[in-house]
Amino acid sequence: MEPIRRASLIKATIAEIGLAGSLEVTVSRIAKRAGMSSALAHHYFGSKEALFLAAMRDVLRLYGAEVRGALAAAEGAEGRARAVIRASFSPANFRREVIAAWLNFYVLAQSQPQARRLLRVYQRRMVSNLRHALRPALGDRAGVVSQGIAAMIDGVYLHAALGPLAADPTAAAALVEDYLTRELECRA
Amino acid sequence: MEPIRRASLIKATIAEIGLAGSLEVTVSRIAKRAGMSSALAHHYFGSKEALFLAAMRDVLRLYGAEVRGALAAAEGAEGRARAVIRASFSPANFRREVIAAWLNFYVLAQSQPQARRLLRVYQRRMVSNLRHALRPALGDRAGVVSQGIAAMIDGVYLHAALGPLAADPTAAAALVEDYLTRELECRA
DNA sequence: TTGTTTATTGACTCGTCAATCAACAAAAAA
DNA sequence: TTTTTTGTTGATTGACGAGTCAATAAACAA
C-alpha cells in the first residue's frame, strides 16, 4: 500500500499546487484528492513540507527523464545541445501545474535547504550536459556558454510561462537556439 | 499622515517578505515593523493583497528608475543596451528582500490578474528599451534579439540569485553581455 | 488461536490570522 | 465652542489548518 499511497499523494500535491498557483494548499485538500484522510497523508509523509519536497523531486525526475531521452535520440554534439534545449520546452513542461511547481520551487529554494540543494543539482546537471556537448565545438568557451544557455533556458521558460511568449513553446526554444547558433557560427 | 503610513507599510512589507522568503507573512508583523497596529494597515490598504501589490509596484518602480538613470548616462546605441543589462544586475537588485519580492511576484502573477498585468508592463518596457537601442545595429533582428536578451536577463538573475553564480553579479551581467556581443559582432 | 504489524480514520487540540468594529483622541472646520 | 473629519487601537470574531491520538479493522505471523 505504501508506495501506491505515496504516489497518489505526490500526484495530488502537484495538481493542487497547480490549481492554487502557490503552496497555500491544505493537506486536507491534497488527501481528499488522493482519496484518503489527511491523517494518512501525515502518516506517510510526516509533514506538509516533506510532501512538497517529494513533489518537487518528482517534477525534477520527470524533467530529467525527458532530457535523458532527448539526449539518447540526438545525433552529434551540436544535436545533443539542441536536444537539451528542446526538451526543456516540451509541452509537458508547460502544463499549468508544472509551471506552478517550478515557480514555487524557486521560492522555496530561498529558505529551504533541501529545496536549494535539489535546485543546485538540477542546474549543475543541466550545465554539465551542455558543456559536454559543446566542448568539441567551443573548447574553452564551452563552460561560459553552457552557463549562459542554462540560464537562458530558465529565463525564456519564465517569459513563456508568464509573459508575452505565452503558449508558443516553439518560439521560445528558438530564442535559445538562436544564441547557440551565434556562438557556434562565429567563434572568437 | 496617510502618505507616510503607506510608505512605512510598503517598506515593512518588503522587509518581511525578504525575511520570510515568501508571502506567508502576517499583516500584524508588517504593521508591527512599521510601528503601528494591524488595524491601521487594513485602514490604509483595505486588504493584505492590496498591500502586496503596492509593495510589488514599489519594487518595479525602483528598478525602473535605476534603468532610466543608466539609460540617461549611457553613450551610443550599444551603450544603452549594455546599460540596461548592467542596471539589471546592480547590487540593489540582489538584496535578499528584492530577490524574494521578485520570486514571489512571479508566483503571484500566475493567479493575480493585477500582478500579471504589472509583470507584462515591466517585460514589455524592458524589451522596448532594448529594441530601441538595438534597432540601428541589428535592423529586423532587433525584435527577436531583444526578447532573447530580456529573457536571458531574468534567467541569469534567477541563477545568480539562487544558484552557482550566487554573489557575483558582475559575472552574471557578463554572461548576458556575451550574448549581445555575439549578436553584434557577427550579423547574419 | 493469539499476538503483532500495517492501514486507516474521525475527532480533537492548539494555534494562527485576516478582517471588523466600537471607541477614543486629536486636529480642523464651523 | 461645537461639530466634523482624520488617525488610531484593543478587543473580538469567525474561520481555517497542521499535526496528534485513540480506536478500529484487517492482514499476517507464531
How is the secondary structure organized here?
2 copies of one chain form a homodimer.
Chain A: H1 2-20, H2 27-33, H3 38-45, H4 48-73, H5 76-88, H6 96-111, H7 113-138, H8 142-162, H9 169-185
Helix pairs in contact in A: 1-2, 1-4, 1-6, 2-3, 4-5, 4-7, 5-7, 5-9, 6-7, 7-8, 8-9
The first copy, chain A, binds a DNA duplex (30 and 30 nucleotides) through helix 3.
Give an overview of the whole structure.
Two copies of one chain form a homodimer. The first copy, chain A, is mainly α and 188 residues long. Chain A has nine helices and no strands. Chain A has helices at residues 2-20, 27-33, 38-45, 48-73, 76-88, 96-111, 113-138, 142-162, 169-185. The longest helix of chain A has 26 residues, at 48-73. The radius of gyration of chain A is 18 Å and the shape is elongated. At the A-B interface, helix 6, helix 7, helix 8 and helix 9 of A face helix 6, helix 7, helix 8 and helix 9 of B. Chain A binds a DNA duplex (30 and 30 nucleotides) through helix 3.
A few lines on this structure:
Chain A is mainly α and 188 residues long. Chain A contains nine helices and no strands. Chains A and B meet through helix 6, helix 7, helix 8 and helix 9 of A and helix 6, helix 7, helix 8 and helix 9 of B.
